[in-house]
Design goal:
By secondary structure, the protein is mainly alpha-helical. It has a domain at 58-140: Lysozyme (Orthogonal Bundle). It is built from 7 helices and 5 strands; from the N terminus they run αβββαααααββα. Strands 1-2-3 form a 3-stranded antiparallel sheet. A two-stranded antiparallel ribbon has the order 4-5. α2 packs across α3 and α3 (76-89) runs antiparallel to α7 (127-140). The longest helix has 22 residues, at 48-69.
């Protein structure tokens, strides 16, 4: 599963690339650094099995977001790629994104460029996010030809921080 592989399992509290306190497979504890004020249930870490339960629960939230916000008919690969994206950047950021608009208008030639914008974490370029976005693109276009056309003139391809989202 792309999300499980991209997030990796960390049994103890950690600050993710964006500086948010997380645990397990990127389960968000709070939108701030870990500082000892986290819920007691996470103090001693967690098992992989419990981490997987959180991953499934969090993915259900991401799936619901994609189902609510995407009006275009999606293939399994397109749906899975967007769910991974939402899991990573959050539903609010997805709702405001040009990527969502492009998908809803089924402008496939614009999709890769829009995915590739989301590579900053805490103001810094992240090679892990770049790899993840490329994996999402590959999954989105699974079984299809990747668009070769250039994005339209004037297309905003500026990079976006996953903490802030598209402004």
């Amino acid at each position: 599963m792309l999300t499980e592989d991209s997030e990796g399992f960390v049994p103890d509290l950690y600050n993710d690339a964006a500086g948010y306190c997380s645990i397990a497979f990127g389960h968000l504890i709070k939108r701030a650094r870990c500082d000892g004020s986290e819920p007691a249930e996470f103090e001693d870490g967690m098992s992989r099995a419990r981490g997987t339960e959180l991953l499934v629960r969090d993915m259900l939230i991401a799936q619901a977001e994609v189902q609510m916000e995407v009006t275009a008919k999606l293939s399994d690969g397109e749906y899975a790629a967007l769910c991974d994206f939402v899991y990573n950047v959050g539903g609010a950021n997805f709702r405001r994104s040009t990527l969502r608009k492009v998908v809803n208008h089924y402008q496939l030639e614009r999709v890769p460029g829009q995915f590739r914008r989301w590579v900053l974490a805490g103001g810094r370029r992240s090679s892990a996010l770049r790899t993840r976005r490329n994996n999402e693109i590959a999954l989105f276009f699974e079984g299809l030809s990747l668009p070769r056309a250039l994005p339209p003139a004037g297309e905003d391809l500026s990079v976006i921080d996953v903490r802030i989202g598209e402004q």
